[in-house]
Amino acid sequence: MNTVQGQETPAVQAGSAQVDVAIVGAGLAGTSLAAVLGKAGRKVALIDPHLVHHDEFRAEKIGMKQMQAFEKLGLGPAIRPLVTPVTGTHVFRLGQFFERERKWEFGFSYGALVNGMRQALPAEVPLTVGKVAEVSTGPDRQRLVLADGAVIESRLLVVATGNGETVRRAIGMERIEESKAHSMSIGFDLAITPRECAYPAIICYPRRPADRVAYLSVFPIGNRMRANLFLYRTVAEEWTRAFRENPQAVLCEIMPEVAPQCGNFGVVGPVEVRQVSLTTTRAHRRAGVVAIGDAFWTTCPTPGVGINRAMTDVDRLASTYIPAWLETPGMDVDKICAFYDDAVKVTTDQAGMRSSIYAKRITTETGLEWRLRRLRNNTARQLMILGRRISRRAELPAPSTA
């Protein structure tokens, strides 16, 4: 049993079973779906090779919209103790303070969040620790054979394996790269505590498009300050090697205006780098099986839409489709297609892909259209900054004439 944070993850060793829904992959999407279905009285098998989710640099901050999605699904009590809330983010643009965004955001470590969610699983939905060796799907029953020979049969199979390809390929799904090495995320801890940081949270946008940086986000996770840098470069570039060797020097050079607020970007611990490609899926309309979250589409973390997409999949399946599907015999392809064609899901997926592409183009494109767009946006921001300065000066008391 896992005893992270003093609790135990309900878990069993692989064993044969017959269930309503088998979920392969106990990351955020798979574990959330298992928890919601289990609380609704469905018989669920949640399968993952590891009892404890390993440390993994992925999403580390969500907004109020995503938190409300967890609350809607009844997962709020499990999520809230695992996140660090912040209510005010100071935004720097064009080399100067721009505005304070007064909104709720929540920082977290992905591995700790997933493990906490696993610990909150209903006792009726233990985590089955095992590796899938064989998969067969069809319009009536789905069959998983695990590495130790155990067999799990279900009416529906949900693939929630993120970027993992083994199960997807066994089923016949094909991942399509829409934009290879589209973006890169870098995560690291700053050598200051939240009390030592000038602001509760910071977002800093670069001054030069040539830096190919989208923005830097600094926020608390527990008693440490975490930094996420989103940019449009590749792991193999010399710039990336230089950043890994001396992140403080590189950050102070591209964002000098915010460096003093963050202890001049002193860094402790490892610098974690994650390359991301935009992907979609082909040959996924199959009887008996659905793919959710990053196992279906992968979008860029820069616009912060990944968790929203995953939770939309969980919500639509758990609240609408799975209950209806289980009321009638079979799990034919028409049922499955209804989920993939769901208007809310389609809108969420497509909006995530559009925002991923636009965020890169507005940051890096050098064509006249995009240079004019940046000029327009930056001119409007400069005017806003100037207007605030004039307003503040007007509010100052008049000098005494005595």
UniProtKB/TrEMBL annotation:
Protein name stated in the entry: NAD(P)/FAD-dependent oxidoreductase
Pfam families: FAD_binding_3
InterPro entries, alphabetized: FAD-bd (IPR002938), FAD/NAD-bd_sf (IPR036188), PheA/TfdB_FAD_monoxygenase (IPR050631)
Transmembrane domains' residue ranges: none
Domain of life of the native organism: Bacteria
Listed PANTHER family: 3-(3-HYDROXY-PHENYL)PROPIONATE/3-HYDROXYCINNAMIC ACID HYDROXYLASE, FAD-DEPENDENT MONOOXYGENASE
UniProt keyword annotations, A-Z: Oxidoreductase
Record domain FAD-binding: where: 19-319
Gene3D superfamilies given in the database record: FAD/NAD(P)-binding domain
